[in-house]
Amino acid sequence: MINKVVANAEQAIKGIQDNMTLMLGGFGLCGIPENAITALLKAKTKGLTIISNNAGVDDFGIGLLLQTHQVKKMISSYVGENAEFERQLLSGELEVDLIPQGTLAERIRAGGAGIPAFYTPAGFGTEVAEGKEVREFDGKMYLMERWLKADFSLVKAWKGDTAGNLIYKGTARNFNPMMATAGKITVAEVEELVPAGTLDPAHIHTPGVYVQRIFEGSNYEKRIEQRTVSQATHQ
């Protein structure tokens, strides 16, 4: 069995060059490839097109890459937590494609499944529909949306094995599994790396066939974007 393990994030991102398209997994700040992002910062790779549901926050996640102006274009769904993103967008420094979240997820899934296009009603009659083919099915109007693919997909899993099989935990399962299928090269960082054959096959979310490189990450912050707590009540 092929051993796909690399020593660290720096080795894992080898081959990522200026002006490439990357997918970065996660939902908000949950399940983001923290170690891989740090390695990209150190590598100073620039002109990147990044496909990710969120753009991180000002001082964490993809927001760090925005601060160093390594990102040329963002293809995202929700970007409301990042003031630097807003500044670069309004000043024209950053190209942005804002996509309805379900459409973004399906475009990524389609890229991994080899489906070049599909039809969806989301966005019909809005700016989202500009320049897109529109067709009627059973009396309802639909937009044609094209697949999304990437040169590299950088994903984060809870546990993985040396053959590249991955298990995600909780909300981290949102975008990571589909992005793992849609990159020419998929890099997985995991919290726990175990020998091949030790994971229960019934619990695997991403089969190792989709993963080319895997490493065990460290020093995860796992930040929360907005912490909400209830006030203690005294009776």
UniProtKB/TrEMBL annotation:
It comes from the Bacteria. Gene3D superfamilies: Glutaconate Coenzyme A-transferase. GO terms for molecular function: CoA-transferase activity. PROSITE patterns: COA_TRANSF_1. Signal peptide: none annotated. Pfam families: CoA_trans (PF01144). SMART domains: CoA_trans. The keyword Transferase applies. Keywords: Transferase. InterPro entries: 3-oxoacid_CoA-transf_A (IPR012792), CoA_trans_fam_I (IPR004165), CoA_transf_BS (IPR004163), NagB/RpiA_transferase-like (IPR037171). The keyword Transferase applies. Belongs to the 3-oxoacid CoA-transferase subunit A family. PANTHER family: ACETATE COA-TRANSFERASE SUBUNIT ALPHA, KETOACID-COENZYME A TRANSFERASE. NCBIfam families: pcaI_scoA_fam. This is CoA transferase subunit A. It comes from Rapidithrix thailandica.
